[in-house]
Amino acid sequence: MTARILIVDDDRTFRLSTAELLREEGYEVVGANDGQEATDHLKSQPFDLMLLDVRMPGVDGLHLLELLRSWGEGIPILMISGFGTVDTAVSALHQGADDFLTKPIEPEVLASRVAELLARRPSARELEDRAVRGIVGRAPAMVDVFDAIRKVAPTDTTVLIMGETGTGKELVARAIHDLSSRSGGPFVPVNCSSVAEGLLESELFGHVRGAFTGAVRDKPGLFEAADGGTIFLDEIGDTSLSLQQRLLRALQEREVTRVGAVKPVGVDVRVIAATNRDLRDEISAQRFREDLFYRLNVFKIELPPLRRRRGDIPLLVEAAMERLRKERSGCERLSCSPFAMRMLRAYDWPGNVRELFAVVEAAAIRAGGRRIEAQHLAEEVRSAVSGKEEAGVHEGRYRADATGDDERAAIIAALEKADGVRTRAAELLGMGRTTLWRKMRQYGLDTS
């Protein structure tokens, strides 16, 4: 496929001449005058390479570079400077730039550097190969996760998965199991925070008849149920110290003793644990056993929160919509508008991927299975990003419930931002072009 390149430079002559050169080389090129415009482009479409000027009004190149890397954007970046110094180049490369050139640049040199950087990018097939069991992500942090899964899966090593709620810890655990020699055995997930403390011990280790009131027969526990396979202990940080002692013994001795029994039962189980807590802090607070921590922390995988890999949001949104297209009747034509996508990328996602999928599903229902617009998104998403300049139309931003003067002001602001281009203004407002025309006529605005 043709590579898509974004040129970000306030020097119009350089931007246009470079775009012409790169188009002659067969690339698709988009230009941006400043960091704000570049951010708008990045939030609505993917790019394979960025040419980024160091010094620009507003958000300068180095600040934008830092912002992109903090988002988890893995796009290759070639920094351009008209005032090149060694210190500037070193600073740019240290902050994550892939290469650095100083103006004036010979066309042959620029074309060569662009080709080299594009050659380093993984192919679509390589990206697909890096993904694991349907886990979506191309950000560098997720590529590291995929590599870790592939390396640890063939072993029988205990794994500790760290990550905030909703980041996909169980998906990673299942992927490790599926790629291991135990894949033919059971995968038994246990949410340690959702089972009452008095019942969790019996659930995990089983009990014998008469062990407690209601124990009318012998019952094997989940460790025995997972024999020959994998047990996934989610939210391990929520367990009590007394239960942690029994878990430690199960890991050390590879055997469990049912509640009320004397004789232990041997089990062949791989343990994968997960937590959204910092277990070292829990150890310091004497809420988690240090010896159990070291038994669990043999191989650690850290999952990044979604706000640290915003570049993956379009992929995740597409994955969510694809699932809805397959599972829900009437969603066959489901899509997402560029402005709605920018709002989704601007939101911080405290609930991570789980929250994103829920928001997309709800928006699809409001959109009637058609195109998701800004007004179809959850109120918490729209409210959270309404104050971010890059996500809306500044002080006149549109709200789904806006009426009268507020709505008229929002429409005027959008038209000004879009330089009078109604399709673009409608996109900014999250409404259809016909709806915009009707509202312009309603408010006495020029519709000619």
TrEMBL record:
4-aspartylphosphate modification, residue list: 53
Coiled-coil intervals: none
Origin, by domain of life?
Answer: Bacteria
One Pfam family, please name it.
HTH_8
Keywords of this entry: ATP-binding, DNA-binding, Nucleotide-binding, Phosphoprotein, Transcription, Transcription regulation
GO biological process terms, semicolon-separated: phosphorelay signal transduction system; regulation of DNA-templated transcription
- SUPFAM superfamilies, sorted: CheY-like, Homeodomain-like, P-loop containing nucleoside triphosphate hydrolases
Domain (Response regulatory): residue spans on this chain = 4-118
Q: Which GO terms describe its molecular function?
A: ATP binding; sequence-specific DNA binding
Q: Could you tell me which residue ranges the Sigma-54 factor interaction domain spans?
A: 135-365
Which residue ranges traverse the bilayer?
A: none
Q: What is this protein called?
A: Sigma-54-dependent Fis family transcriptional regulator
